[in-house]
Amino acid sequence: MNELVATLTGFARTLRAAGVPADHERTQGMLSALDHLDPAVMTDVYWAGRLTLCAGPDDLPRYDRCFEAYFSGWRPTARRRTVVTVTRYTLAERDEAEAGEEGEADGTPATASRLELLRHRDVASLSSAERQEVNQLIALLRAGREQRRSRRYGPAHRGALDPRRTVRETIRRGGEPARLRFKTRKHKPRRVVMLVDVSGSMASYADSLLRFAHALIRTEPAATEVFSAGTRLTRVTAELRHRDPGVAMAAVSAAIPDWSGGTRLGDELREFLRGHYARGAVVVIASDGWERGSPELLGRQMERLSRLAHRVIWVNPHKGHPSYEPLTGGMRAALPYVNDLVAGHSLAAFEELAERLSHA
């Protein structure tokens, strides 16, 4: 029973990362529903979750994609034709068939539990098949954004008086006194700018981090910018805007000329800050901090960045290991100007980062 609860709560976490409001109360509702059903039957699990974890019609496509990815490709049959057949079994054949069905059903929770363990595995240690599964779940991530007040105004029921709309309404009524019109500031998502280190020391993590960046762009295309950082700075936002992750990653691979090279983060941050990308944005730097250039230069640029950005988040894949300490020259130089130092080595770490960006 404990294994089943862990599996289903892990599935709920995956849904939340994909934008479905599968909170604690809804998860308890799914568990209560399964008390009256058979958790070993995938159809029961599917409908119990669909009816309790989803808040509206917009959640259903995301729920189906997550369910298929989390439970190893299982999907409900849209329409089943009812075919009545008469099959003659010997007693031994019937027992063998029933045993086979039970074994298949019992294997499903074990598969989901394995995927739950996979969420916390370091992506550098995954096999090619496991990495493919994790990549499918990264593609489902939805990172909401903190809303900030815009300079533009929009109509409202209360707020500041809108003289122009009030006068226009009066003129439209032929000069007769009209109802007062009000306005208030509009809101829009805060921009996120992500710099991904693609140097040799980050070779095991750069692909997964860029796939996470692709998920960010799919969530908020107009409020996300992505750069690769190695021996030079390369803007890869346009390449990552393709909806298909495979096509997007192929375009990124062709666009980045310095895969698995060195790292000169100080020089690249200086170049980055010559533009206007950082002002008011949440800047995410994904790097292990191995700096070939001057740590002092990196420290000065990080100080400038901290003054311009709304928040600076440093994602270090090694932060997920219990014994990690920020001892490299680059990390020591950057750390005083970082708001959050977080892990970036697993699917669970990416989900936590997506949640952090929602409340930056």
Write a compact overview of the structure shown.
The radius of gyration is 26 Å and the shape is flat. The protein is of the alpha/beta class and 360 residues long.
Give an overview in words.
There is one protein chain. The protein has 360 residues and is α/β, with parallel strands linked by helices. It folds into three domains: 108 residues, no CATH class; 40 residues, no CATH class; 167 residues, 3-Layer(aba) Sandwich (Rossmann fold). It is built from 13 helices and nine strands. The strands form two sheets. Strands 6-5-4-7-8-9 form a six-stranded mixed sheet. A three-stranded antiparallel sheet has the order 1-3-2. Helix 1 packs across helix 5, helix 2 packs antiparallel against helix 3 and helix 10 packs parallel to helix 11.
Give the secondary structure arrangement, pairings included.
Layout: H1 2-17, H2 24-34, H3 42-53, H4 59-70, H5 91-118, H6 128-138, E1 147-156, E2 160-161, H7 163-172, E3 182-189, E4 192-197, H8 203-219, E5 224-229, E6 233-235, H9 245-255, H10 265-273, E7 282-286, H11 295-308, E8 311-316, H12 329-334, E9 340-343, H13 347-358
Parallel strand pairs: 4-5, 4-7, 7-8, 8-9
Antiparallel strand pairs: 1-3, 2-3, 5-6
Helix pairs in contact: 1-5, 2-3, 10-11
